[in-house]
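Would you mind writing out a protein's amino acid sequence and the numbers that encode its backbone to help me picture the idea?
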Amino acid sequence: MGEVVLPRRMFLWCMAVIYLTAFVSLYVQIPGLYGNEGLLPARWQLRYSGKPLVEQLLSSPTLLWLGPRLGLDTHTAMELLCLIGAALSLAATLVEAFRDSVVFFCLWVLYLSMYEVGQVFLYFQWDNLLLETGFLCILVAPLTLIGGSRGVREHDRVTFWLTRWLLFRLMFASGVVKLTSRCPTWWGLTALTYHYETQCIPTPLAWFAHQLPVCWQKLSVVGAFVIEIAVPFLFFSPLRRLRLGAFYLQVLLQVFIILSGNYNFFNLLTVTLCLSLLDDRHVYFWLRKAYKTDNGNDGMKLHCTLWSWLCYLLELVVWALLIVGTIICFDLQLDTAKKGISSRTAFTYHQFNLFLKTVTIPCIWIGVLSLTWEMVTSLFRCACVSGFFKRFWGTVQWTVFAGAAASMFAVSLVPFTFIEYDSNSRLWPGVRQAYEMVDRYQVVNSYGLFRRMTGVGGRPEVVIEGSSDGVTWTEIEFMYKPGNLSAPPPVLTPHQPRLDWQMWFAALGPNTQSPWFTSLMYRLLQGKRDVVELIQSDVSQYPFHQQPPAYLRAHRYRYWFTESKADGSFPERWWRRVYDEEFYPIVHLGNSFLEGMLNQYGLKDKSPPRRLSNTTVAQAVRWVRSQVRGVPAHTLIWTLIACSATFCLLQGLRHKSKDAEKPSDAHKATATDRTENAADGSSSDHHEKSDEQQADEEADKEADSEDEVEEEGEEENEVDEEDEDEERIEKR
């Protein structure tokens, strides 16, 4: 694989942007989710028992234990940590020096601190993925803030390889679990006929995608299986164009998901991991810049030409095998009657399970060989460094980071083999013990989204209704999740409204499976503003903003996308629905059922919260909160991203203009020197110039104009010509 300097820099910048998104998105929701009057107060997760700080950190690794030492309650400390994380990540997007191992370590610790007390609202796979990728950033990023260099290190390719291995685990597992779950919609290739309308928060384009013919929906499922299960093996191909093809296929899948669904920063993070498949040469191609390579002599060129043709043939064979395998496994046939391509799953669960058992261990060996190759080539590069001390220091660094990469790879084998337990049982016991030691820090995780397709009989949706008299009921409309039949689906990526997401999970089962829902009803009856802002950031849009409802209830409905009309025109509404059942009975403050549920789940305060702190830090945190209150989170996030991107773009244009000015300044200086020399020569000559002298001067001028467009390597010839001019003048 070629140099990865530019992809690595792009990866670190994108990670800084994703961290910024995650911290700002969470910060906006902290009061309603984790405040003292929120749904699940974070202070309940921290029991101050008087133990030493080290023991508290070992029991629950979060910096929130330091809150009381700063005079802050848990809620304010969470906001402070989020603000620090957002500030650090914003600085990292603006200044390259802040894309440093120390900064990424701080960002990882800060997000882990939030995760430890986040409870059900932070238990998503993308939170785990962000923590694992963020930990890899500590190894990938340079160490510059303490006097290091931002230059290329010989072990960079080894540490950057870990992101490629993580991408392989993520994509391969995401495809495999869809089939190991035995979900009939995935096996029948009909999952996408339900997916667009049943996903948590669809986009407007999801409505249009839902209208596509069934044959195209099934073909899309086939494409997803190929991209997620077969294509990831190309990540480790020694052939560069195969890796680039895998890159574009993965990005294509993620772009389609982003366009049809609001999955916060998850797909952006996946695209960021895909940067590990690129090299400098391809990034230069994007930038329309020439990539300098050593072409060598004619014999070397002939050898490269032959090798290039051989690579072309091998690549054609691989793509042909991939296409033929897809046709066979999914029985693809041209259906002229329906004017489409018919497809079906042409293998059984037993055959797929046998395939999985066959390839899981070889996948590990492919990773071992690929990592070993990167280590060996990096060690060779260290040995080629000039200077004993540089060579020695580079070898020491290689030893440390190669050991860290090998350890991370070994530990990751445990969650990777969860997809096939026979392979998991064959792992070395020492590897499993190491995994158990680091499991609580979310350094490595198992993945696999959309194992089973929900909402086959219609999208279940919980609708909360409030009343002041118990007779007239008003629906409480959420800002993002479906409710109002006429409201278009929102576009809010990369923000994640965590309450709206949990409402989607709550609708899949009874209310007893979602204890936090009882807390939501309780806080709405109390009229807590922080919780109301989770539903509507503009409180005036909340139907009970003047006075809390006296009664609340919740019903479950079944939602479907509307269909386009026969004449091709669009319907007036986006959704249609039918009543399903009661989800939560009518409750009011003091209601026996509500009180019983609160006591059963431990949702009532057993001890009063800490008194409001008036320290300078606490006042500063509250001031920042007052400035952003009422601003929609996705608007705030995109404003910060746009400002950061604009600043980086202007910075790049400024550097480009400076680089363009340097050669022009050099040409001007050369021309000025020549003019001065000519003036000195003419002042010493008081006689008319002969025709021969004039011809010589004209020839000299033409030579000078040609020299101005020559390369810097011809400067010596210019000096010789100027010496000849001086000799002729002296003769005259």
